[in-house]
Amino acid sequence: MNIIAVTACPTGIAHTYMAAESLEKTGRALGHQIKVETQGAMGIENELSDSEIAAADAVIFAVDIEVENRERFEGKKIIEVPVKLAIKDPKGIFAKIG
Amino acid sequence: MHFEHRFLCPLVNGLHARPASHLEALASQSPATVTLFNERTGAQANAKSVLSLVGADILPNDPLRLVVEGLEAEAAFARLVHFLDEEFAATDTPLPPVSISADSDAPLPRSLQAAAPEKILRGCVACRGFAEGSITQIGALRLSEKVASQLTRETDGLEVYRTAVAEVSASFASEIRTADGLHAEVLKAHHSLLGDVALAEAVASRFAKSGTSLAHAIIGATDEFANTLRQSSSVYLQERALDLQDVAARLLTQIYGPDAVERVPRLEIPALVIAESLTPGQFLALDRRFLRGLVLQHAGMTSHTIILARSFGVPTLTGVADATRLADGVPAFLDAQLGLLLPHPNEAVRRYYALEKRRIERIQSASRKFLHTPGTSRDGGRLPVLANVSSAEEVAAAIAQGAEGVGLFRTEMLYMDRNDPPDEEEQYAVYAAAATAAQGRPVTLRTFDIGGDKPVSYLQLPAEANPFLGFRGARIYEKFAGLLRTQLRAIFRASRHGSLRIMAPMIACPEEMRAFRRTVNEVQADFPGSTVPVGMMIEVPSVALAMADFVEDADFFSIGTNDLTQYFLAADRDNAAVASIYSSFHPAFLRLLRLVVDEAQKQDRPIGLCGELAENPEALPILLALGLDSISLGAPRILETKAALARLDHAKVREHFLTLLQSRDRASVEEKLQELRRQTQVKPQLDIALFSLESTATSKHEVIKELTDLLAADGRTDDSVALEEAVWKREEAYSTGFGYGLAIPHCQSDHVLSGSIAVIRLQNPVEWDSLDGQPVRIAILLAMRSADKGREHLRVFSKLSRLVMRDEFRESLAQATDPDELLRLLSAELYPQPETPVIP
C-alpha cells in the first residue's frame, strides 16, 4: 500500500523523529511504500506534496499536538494515534489500516 | 542648677540608634549631667550613652522628661531643648525592614524531593557553599568552670574594672593601627562600645548592689544591654549585641586570665557550628581545620561575623528557625546554595549530596584547568588576564580566581565614605597587604581618582556644571599635593612587599604627567633603592595623538575604555538618551585603540586595558587582535575569559580585526563580532565531558540530576536546578523510556546555553516507567537551547532520535569501551561529513 504519515510531539526534539523512523522501518518491513513528514523543532521536514497526499491509500497521524496544515488531508482516511504508540507498537497501527 | 523639660517622643519609630546618636553627640558636648526619663515605663537613660538611650525602650508619643544638672547646665539645657523641639523629629527616618526571612517557597530540586529528607530547615544564604559535619551548638558568653569555681568577691572590684577598661582600650588602639581595613573597622566598633558610659554604670551598680563578683557584674550588664539590642527592631542594633559580648569577653580575659571565658567549643571533627549569634572573636577562635559550616539564628548580612565568614569562604546560613534546638553531634548537611540544613540525612539524601559533591568537583576541575595557566589563545598568543580591585581583601580572592596580577587597584575607595583622608600608616597597611597577597604578581595602584562621579566630602570640591570635564583625577593633585605625597610615600614603603606600580588617572596633556612624575621622583628620593614603575591611564582622547610626548614620564600605559569612549564620542555613559552613541564598537573608536596600541609599541612601552570593554565577551577578539600586553577585569569573570581566550585563534582574529576597522558603522562591527562569536564560542554538542559510562546512580531522579549536572559542570547551563525541572516537566507528559533499556530524556530551555548531548550508562539498570515496562541501562539527554529552534544544527538531535530506533546503533552504544570510543562512534554517525566538530 501507499501510506503517508505525519509525526509531531510537543517539544519536537526526540519523539517526532523516533516515531518517523519507527513508522518508516516497520512500513517498509511490511512491504508498504511509506513517506513520513515530521513537524518538530526543525519545522516541517520531508513535506508531503498535494500529489503524494492524493495518491496515498492511508494517512497516519502519530501526533500529540495539532497537525499543521491539516486541511491538506481533507477527505482522506486518517488514523490518528499518540506519538508513543508509533514507537511502542507500530505494527498495531499498520494492522488498523488492514 | 536643675532644668527640666517635658515632651512627647516625636519619633515615628521610637528612639532607635540614629536619633539616639544625635542626642548623645549633643549631650556629650557639655560637662552637665543629662538624663532622659521615660514616664511611661519609669526607665531612665543617660543621654551621653547610645546604649542607655536605646535601652530606655522609648516608643512614639511616650511622655518623656529631660533633666539637665550640674556644670554649665543652663547652656546645655537651652541647646538640647532647641534640638528636641526643632530637629529631633527629623532625625528619625524609616528603618529598614527586618530582612531576615527564609525563602521557604523556593522549589527544591526534584532529585532532592525524591530523596525524602526526614527534616529540612530553611534559611538565608550568607556565604555560598556546601558542607557536611556534626552539629555543634554554641551558647552565649559564659565563664569557664575553672574561673567560676574560684571566684571571690573583690573588694577593689571597680578599681580593677577601670584599670582593665584602660588596658583593653590601649590594646584596641594599638591593634587598630596595625589591623587591615575590615578588621580595623570591627575593632573600632568594639573600642567605642568599651567606652560607653552606660556600660560602666551598669557594671558599677550591679557590683555595688548584688554583692557578687565583678565577673558576674560584667556578664549581667552585658547580657542586659545585649538583650535590649537584640530586641531592637533595627537589624543594625541587633548585630551590635554580638560586638558587645566580644568586648565583655576581652574585659574578662584581661581581668581573669586567658582561660576566663568559654569562647567556643574545641572542634575535633568536621563540624557545622550552630549559634544564636557568634561574635567575630568567637568566629576567629573556632578551629578552621574542622569548621565546615556555620548556621546563625541572628546575624544580618552586614554583621562582622558574616563578613569574616565570607572572607574565609565558610558556607553560612542565617535565620534558620529551630536550628539551635538540634542536639549536639547529629550528622547533617548544610546546603548554602539552596539555603537548607538537613539533619539526620537518610541514604538517599547522602546520595544526593554525593552527586552534588561530584558536580562541584567537576565544575572546579573544569575551571581549574585555567587557574594557573596564563591567558593564552589557542595558537599561543599571550594576553595576561589581570583583576580590577578596590580593596586589599579582594586581591587574594582575585589570585585564587586565576588573576595574573592586579591591573587596576582603585585606591580612591579608601578615601570615600569617611570624614577624613586615610593616613600614611593606614594606606601602607592596605598596599602592603595587597602586594603580599599578589605573591610577586604585579599590582597597579591607581592614585586617588576623585571628582566627577566620585565626590569626597572632606575635600570640599566645588560643585561644577560639568564635573566630567572638570576638576577631577590628576587635575586636583596640585591643590591636594600633601594628600598625593602621603599616598606615594605609603606606596613606596609598601613596595618592598611585592611588585607595585603607580598609575596616574585622567591625564590629558604631557605637562600634567611631567608634574606627576616630578612629585613621584621627589617622594622616591626618600626611599633609595626602591623601584616602582610609573604609568598613566589613557582616558582622554588627546593622549592618543601625543603618545610620544608622554613616554619620557610614563613607563607604561593603561587604556580606561569607559571614559575614553565617552570623551571620544562626547556621549555621557549614564545618559540613556545618548546610549545609542555611547559604544566602544564604533569603527572610529577601534581605529583610536589601534592607534594608541601601535604608538605605545613603537615607543617600547607596555600597554594594557582596563574598563568595561574587557568584561564584554564579544570584545575579546578585538582585545586579542590589538596586541595589548594585558587586560584587567572583575575577578569573577577571569576564568571564563581565559577559557574564551583559549578558544580564539590569534592569527584569525587579527585578520578579522582588519575587516572590523574597515566597517562603516557600529552595527556592522557588532554583526561581524557576533558572527565570529558564533563560530568560536559555541561548544560542540558532543564532548567527552558529557559522558559518564560507569554511573552508579540508583534511580531515575539520580540519573536526571547527574545528566543535568554534567551540563552544569561543562558550563552549558546557567541554572542546573531549573534544567532538571524542565527535564522532569517533559517526563510528566509521558516517560521518555521507549524500550530496549534506553531512555531519551530531553528539554528545550532558556537555561541551556549551548545545545548538548549527554550520555549516562548505568552499572545497574534503574526503573524509568518505560513504554515496555523494562528498566533503563542507557540514558541520553538532548538539551536544546530555546533560541536555536529551527536552526540547522538541531538536525543532530533528530538524527540521534532516529538512530536510537536502530538495533545495531543501540548495540554499539552498549559496547563502547570508553568515552573516546563513544565520541568517535557518535561523531561518525551524527557528523558523517569529513568536517567533524572541534574536540577539545
Give the CA-based shape of chain A. Answer: globular
Can you tell me the residue ranges of chain B where pLDDT is under 50 for at least 5 consecutive residues?
95-103
Task: Compute the average pLDDT of chain A.
Answer: 93
| Quaternary class | heterodimer
Kindly estimate the percentage of residues of chain B that lie in beta strands according to DSSP. 15-25%
Number of strands of chain A: 5
The order of strands across the largest sheet of chain A is 3-2-1-4-5
Radius of gyration of chain A: 12 Å
Low-confidence stretches of chain A: none
User: How do the helices and strands follow one another from N- to C-terminus of chain A?
Assistant: EHEEHEEHH
Sheet with most strands: strand arrangement of chain B:
5-12-11-7-8-9-10-6
* Class by SSE composition of chain A: alpha/beta
Task: Compute the separation of the termini of chain A in Å.
Answer: 10 Å
Please describe the structure with a list of short key phrases separated by commas or semicolons:
heterodimer; A: about 100 residues; alpha/beta; 5 strands; B: about 850 residues; eight-stranded mixed β-sheet; eight-stranded parallel β-barrel; 28 helices; 26 strands; about 40% helix
Structure summary:
The complex is a heterodimer of chains A (98) and B (840). By secondary structure, chain A is of the alpha/beta class.
Description of the structure:
The complex is a heterodimer of chains A (98) and B (840). With 98 residues, chain A is α/β, with parallel strands linked by helices. Chain A contains 4 helices and 5 strands, in the order βαββαββαα. Chain A has a 5-stranded mixed β-sheet with strand order 3-2-1-4-5. In chain A, strand 2 (33-40) and strand 3 (43-45) form a beta hairpin. The model of chain A has no long low-confidence stretch (mean pLDDT 93). In chain B, strands 5-12-11-7-8-9-10-6 form an 8-stranded mixed β-sheet. An 8-stranded parallel β-barrel of chain B has the order 13-14-15-16-17-18-19-20, surrounded by 7 helices. The model of chain B is unreliable at 95-103 (pLDDT under 50). In chain B, 42% of the residues lie in helices and 16% in strands. By secondary structure, chain B is an alpha/beta fold. In chain B, helix 13 crosses helix 21 (638-647) and helix 13 runs parallel beside helix 24 (700-713). The chains are: A alpha/beta (98), B alpha/beta (840). The interface between A and B is medium-sized, with 23 and 26 residues.
